[in-house]
Specification:
42% of the residues lie in helices and 16% in strands. It is an alpha/beta fold.
């Protein structure tokens, strides 16, 4: 389209061509005055301050290049295409499909300006504030207020809209449109090579020179010579690799989530009137209020947002400050791939994250990134149809690329990518400062993730267990604290079938012995986990593993008991020891229950070499409810309330899950072949560690949520029911 062109400015050439050194194209040649004027415009210079790859520079440290450099590169590729077309395929008669060089300036301007509407952090900003960079590009080109528009109007009054129509894919000449936007265009060719160069990823490279040489115009667009098929094929594969390795990099997507939530939090605080005056981002207010104009948009760039982020690190709002810290200091969220099946677990995982103190609105997200490497299904009815890549035979006939290339045919029409669930890395790596009270939650959360993928734990049900770990109180025993005959029969049937049955309890061995006798579990090849995982033993008493408290631990715990005026005792394999002359009736009851003699002994008189698997704060329910242990205790120890009347304190690595894992390793059994049954919080670690976690029908809600399945209550022979269903008759499960 060349109607109304003012010859003097449209054809004005620089006295001496301007060159820009470039690491990708070596030199970028500017020959037209209008192109140089556009480059020097305010709107185009702004692109220097907007990164091409956004958050990807936080993963690929060299990827600091800008939209400015990319736009120059697209211009240069387009210039080379025009030179090739004019030199080798000029039009001779109207409608012959050759190149009309009167279209050159339109193509060059569209190439140079195609990204001028990008905002800071591009796509993330668009998502938050519902902007459209292509629509803003058109507005920049057509608004009389912009320098770009004023320059373009010197060509002709209609020229700004003509350039905009190329970018909007409505321009009548398909050759010009396809130069800028198609499955193989100047835009894609430059960003693949440029992004590969700056990220240091060689698989993004391809033979640009060869592709440009085999390009040729025809009536309906642009084709490629048949003998250039392998160069085009290489381009398609390079693009595929770049999307998988760079553009869809999970850490880059994670940082986009952090950025998204950071801006979202600032917006929420402002809308709720909770923004501290000194932290209000005034240049963003038009976007918060959904009343921005073009000038507001052009005032923003990456540096403006970064300045606000630095300021927000000092915000009194903890979430805003933390998200700013995570983004600026590169603290990405972790992620795991999920599918339709494992997606059902996301609400529960969010509940776990919420239970340790994270706001799931800001610390979790789902994201899907998919790309179609090559689409041969041209549909002119869609808004922006993708054109097929056509190969031209020597006789002029056209063949679609995938019909010739086996490689392209293998990936055509196939979306590649994944869906990810993002969450705080602290859920998998809580660190030494994390309160031990949350360890069961972290253990459970981690059990759902394997090799960066959410796993369907219930799929493990079909694996026949070879070891059954059974809690005692509330699980093995009925509400009357007795063993029912049906439970004994089921366990003996399992042991006869070669299945190991292991009692896992907070009790010492002496408190377990009557049940071992009733079940017939005797000898050095039968095992028991006692003291909530503090000891792993044979039923004859041989200790296989232990995580005891130290004497110093005991001294600190006992001193706090005296200060808090709460009853306290420590348990050893042979005795219960209390330093309180006013012995609690609950301690006496516990001594009788576990069949261990009770001894009074002042702390200073305790043998420092005693094996102390657990210590217990024990008293009236109201006093235990009101007891506030020091925060340092939760950091030093594993603390768990296993009964309304007492809180148990153990060494930090002590829990039934770790003990079960040690026993499975000793027996050379994979955890997928382990079934664990329990009802209370102290059972959570083993339920989440085992391949099949079973909650009793009388279990608390946390245990039921963490378990893979729920059996009957202890009043209804829940243990027996689980053994028959999942062990002795797994096909019926």
């Amino acid at each position: 389209m060349s109607g109304g062109i003012t010859v003097s400015y449209a054809t004005a050439r620089l006295p001496r061509e301007k060159v820009f050194r470039d690491p990708v194209h070596n030199y970028i040649y500017v020959q037209h005055q209008v192109i140089l004027d556009l480059i020097n415009s305010r709107e185009f210079q702004r692109l220097r301050r907007i990164k091409q790859l956004g958050t990807a520079s936080l993963i690929f440290h060299g990827a600091e290049h800008s939209r400015f450099t990319h736009s120059l590169g697209v211009y240069e590729v387009t210039r080379q295409i025009c030179d090739n077309f004019q030199r080798n395929y000029p039009t001779k008669t109207p409608g012959d499909g050759g190149w009309d060089d009167n279209e050159r300036l339109t193509a060059l301007c569209a190439a140079l300006l195609h990204d001028i509407g990008h905002g800071p952090y591009s796509h993330t900003f668009e998502h938050i504030f519902h902007t459209d960079h292509e629509a803003i590009t058109a507005e920049i080109l057509t608004s009389p207020k912009t320098e770009v528009n004023q320059i373009l109007r010197r060509i002709s009054p209609t020229f700004p809209q003509e350039v905009a129509s190329v970018i909007q894919k409505t321009y009548p000449n398909p050759q010009v449109v396809q130069m800028i936007s198609s499955q193989i265009d100047a835009d894609r060719m430059d960003y693949l090579l440029r992004d590969a160069y700056y990220t240091g990823t060689e698989y993004g490279t391809f033979d640009l020179t060869r592709i440009l040489r085999v390009m040729r115009p025809y009536k309906d667009g642009i084709a490629f010579a048949m003998n250039g098929m392998h160069a085009v094929e290489d381009y398609i594969v390079s693009r595929f690799q770049m999307y998988q390795q760079v553009y869809f990099h999970p850490v880059s997507r994670s940082m986009e989530v952090v950025l998204d939530h950071l801006l979202g939090r600032a917006n929420e605080l402002y809308q709720a009137g909770k923004s501290d005056e000194s932290f209000i981002p005034h240049l963003l207010l038009p976007f918060f209020n959904h009343q921005f104009d073009l000038e507001d948009y052009l005032n923003l760039d990456d540096g403006v947002l970064t300045t606000y982020f630095i300021h927000w690190r000092q915000s009194p709002d903890e979430i805003l400050a933390d998200l700013a810290y995570r983004f600026l200091d590169r603290k990405p969220l972790k992620s795991a791939i999920f599918d339709e099946q494992t997606q059902k677990q996301l609400p529960h995982l969010r509940d776990l994250i919420r239970s340790v103190g994270f706001n799931t609105d800001y610390y979790t997200a789902t994201d899907n990134s998919y790309d179609l490497p090559y689409d041969d299904a041209y549909d002119p009815k869609v808004t922006h149809p993708l054109t097929q890549i056509e190969l031209q035979e020597p006789d002029g006939s056209l063949r679609e690329l995938s019909t010739v290339s086996d490689l392209v045919n293998a990936i055509r029409g196939k979306f590649t990518g994944d869906q990810r669930f993002f969450f705080p890395k602290e859920m998998l790596n809580p660190g030494n400062d994390a309160p031990e009270i949350f360890q069961p939650v972290f253990d459970e959360f981690g059990s759902y993730i394997q090799n960066d993928q959410l796993i369907d734990r219930k799929a493990l049900i079909k694996v026949t267990p070879k070891l059954i770990a059974v809690d005692i109180d509330g699980t093995l025993l009925n509400p009357q604290n007795t063993l029912k005959a049906t439970t004994i029969t089921a366990i003996q049937a399992a042991t006869t079938a070669g299945i190991k049955v292991v009692l896992c309890t907070g009790r010492p061995l002496t408190g377990v012995q009557p049940y071992l006798d009733a079940l017939g579990l005797h000898g050095d090849d039968q095992y028991v986990i006692t003291y909530n995982g503090g000891l792993v033993q044979t039923t004859t008493g041989m200790v296989l593993a232990s995580t005891p408290l130290s004497y110093a631990d005991y001294v600190d715990l006992e001193a706090f008991a005296r200060k808090a005026r709460i009853h306290f005792h420590v348990v050893t394999p042979d005795h219960l020891y209390t330093a309180d002359r006013n012995i609690s009736r609950y301690t006496v009851k516990e001594s009788q229950l576990v069949n261990l003699p009770l001894r009074f002994r002042e702390a200073a008189a305790m043998d420092p070499h005693l094996l102390m698997p657990t210590a217990v704060y024990i008293d009236e329910v109201a006093k235990i409810d009101a007891l506030q242990l020091p925060a340092t205790f939760y950091q030093r120890f594993y603390v768990v309330r296993t009964d309304p009347h007492f809180i148990e304190v153990m060494a930090p690595q002590t829990n039934k899950g770790n003990a079960l894992q040690k026993l499975a390793t000793h027996l050379d059994l994979p955890l997928t072949t382990v079934m664990a049954i329990g009802d209370q919080d102290n059972d959570l670690p083993m339920i989440t560690t085992a391949g099949l976690g079973v909650a009793m029908g009388n279990a608390n809600d946390r245990v039921k949520a963490a378990a893979d399945v729920t059996t009957l209550t202890n009043a209804d022979d829940g243990v027996a029911a689980a053994i028959y269903k999942y062990v002795l008759n797994p096909d019926l499960a």
